[in-house]
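Q: What structure does this chain adopt?
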Amino acid sequence: MKFFQSLLSKYLLIILIGIILLPFAIPIVSLLFYIPIPLLDDINEKQAINGEEIEKGWHEAAENLGGANREQIIDKLEEFQEEYKKSEVFWVDNKGVLTYQSQKNLNIPKQWDADYTVRFMKDRIEGDPFTVVAFIGKQENQGFMVFQLSRDVLEPPIQKLRDSYSYVYLIGIVVILGSFMFVSLLFFRSIRKRLIHLQNAMMIRDENNIPYPVTVKKKDEISQLEGSFNQMIDELKSSRKRELEEEQLRRQLIANLSHDLRTPITAIKAHAYSLTTEPISDKGKDSLKLIDHKISYLDRLIENLMSYTLLVAGKYLYKPKEVEIHRVIKTSVASWYPVLEREGFEVNVDLLEEQVHWLLDAHWLERVLDNLFQNVLRHARSGKFLSIRSYRKEEELRIVIEDKGPGLKHTSEDKGAGIGLAIVALMVKEMGMKWEVSSTKAGTKIELYKIQHQE
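A:
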């Protein structure tokens, strides 16, 4: 049953019908030419011109014109010419002079002699045009009159059609092949239309970027493709729904963990600080210092996880306004300077003296700078160098942060999952900014700048 509903079976049926009809095409066309339809026979009889009747009437008219004058003879000739519109008539008198002709453009000599007259009559026997020559009167002393008519006119219209039997075979083949090609064209046009419809359906997406299902109307290969397409859409929707649920669960889990971990971390940090006031060995002090460092790192990690979750969910508070960029940078560097100095960093600040205002959230920009400085402190500690400068490139202000660390590709013991830089990327994009990073074994350079023309 599936085979008979397939496109292959339908096209094979078209080919089979064409093969079966081809042998019958010629007889069918022949019948159209030779079928004895009474109406056609009536038309044939009405439109047929009988040469024998014309010849008989022409001779009778010529005999009855015996003793007639010039006007009477010409009137009779014009009467015949009027009855047979396509005929040609003329009269040559007993002296061989062309006395009358119905058409002035006939190639007829004005003077006839005996030799030309004999040759003319001999050429016209069974020739074309059909010619009847009759002497006027019984005495034959008034000359002779000639009637000419093309033999094509004498042949009936239906007979002309039937005489074209040699084209029957060609017409039959052309009709069958033309019909086969036309039906095939309709068949493939229908297939193409359905495929284009399916292609267009793939381009139209809903708010989740998932195509809409299509209506399956038939039971063939394309319908199976449409069914598979609809099944894929259902699977995509289920997958998307499951993904959203998992994403929501993950965000909720991170938020809960971040909140639950802050309390014990704060307690641990307080107890670690209280131990520093107690008399302990140098080794104990080193351990307390390491504990404080790791607790601070864990606290920042939790903060980054919380921030990243809020940013991805679009719930991180963003209040853009006009802020002076150099002032924000100086405030951020000033807050980090004691930490960097304690770690032995050489801090070089070279900012332009002009005031530049950008439309963004100052707290977001400070968070970006904090994450970048924290990244330098963790991964470029070996270089002991940090440079913060600003310059103009094609009238565009750029902020540059450089270090002399081993580069971003270097693996350190403090290397994490890169959440800090991921937060930087999200915040920079949200504020309408761009950042360019170039990192080698000699250090890392990061450039920040504002996109002046956003689409």
